[in-house]
Design a protein that fits this description.
The chain has 158 residues and is of the alpha+beta class. It contains five helices and five strands. 35% of the residues lie in helices and 10% in strands. The chain has a three-stranded antiparallel beta sheet with strand order 3-5-4. Strands 1-2 form a two-stranded parallel ribbon. Strand 1, helix 1 and strand 2 form a beta-alpha-beta unit. The chain is elongated, with a radius of gyration of 22 Å.
Amino acid sequence: MDRVGKTPEVEQNIVDDAFTTDIIVVGSGAAALTAALTAAASGRTVRIIEKTAKIGGTSAMSGGMTWLPANHYAQEAGFSDTPEEALQYIRQTAPAGWGETEDPLWASQVENGPAMLKLVEAHSPLRFKLTSVPDPFRRLKAPSQLESFLSNPSVAKS
């Protein structure tokens, strides 16, 4: 009701189904696009909003590479890194004090990363392969994580 006790007339808007969506993803980096793919794979309608003219966010600078411990490619190649070893590695190589706030995120990454990789490959044309890159933290007495680097050749070439 307005100040004089009258109910204002409300214009009813009819929403066009072409503009309805279940999920809006802001940004188009690797995490955003994976979230969008996950939602779409579960039957949701998704809209991605990107502020720039190109997709990729900061992930576009990675050359299609990612570090994903305990992935199925490493296991198939005979490497035996585990989520626990990966979490130890992250903790040893992270800047001082970061673990206080970031440890739950790191734990989630190493626990859920392998399933995420399988989901991405099952529901998109992206395919990854193991790639050999130098470990920037090899000076530390941390478990070697060289077998966990993956590249996407189609992205790396673009």
